[in-house]
Design goal:
Layout: H1 5-25, E1 30-34, H2 47-63, E2 67-71, H3 73-80, H4 94-113
Parallel strand pairs: 1-2
Helix pairs in contact: 1-2
Amino acid sequence: YPGNDADDEKYVSDYLALVDKLKAKNAESVFVVMNCPACYRVTSYDSTRVRTVQAQVAQLMKDRGDAVYFYDMYTYTKENLGSENFPDQLHPSDEGYALMADGVYAMLQGIWSGKADSYMIPLA
């Protein structure tokens, strides 16, 4: 993800097109947009920019009436995993993926029970 305005626009339009295709198959679909996990590599993609665009996608979905939640995987991984869970400083290890799955499981339990997960980001 090079991270320029044209790439951002394409990412958003492709994302919304995919959501539309999924909704065409099931109009009652509920979506969870997650931002990217932490990255410990110094010279990597601009994760701040990517997270901003991911938040914009979630907000656009909500604004157009989609049933959507926004999960802060970045903060979850920063607080619950360490760089040791990212052997190449970018991709999680098997243990790292398992810990991330624990977070997703807790998030889904929160959605199903109606109780907000602490890593859910409210959408306006």
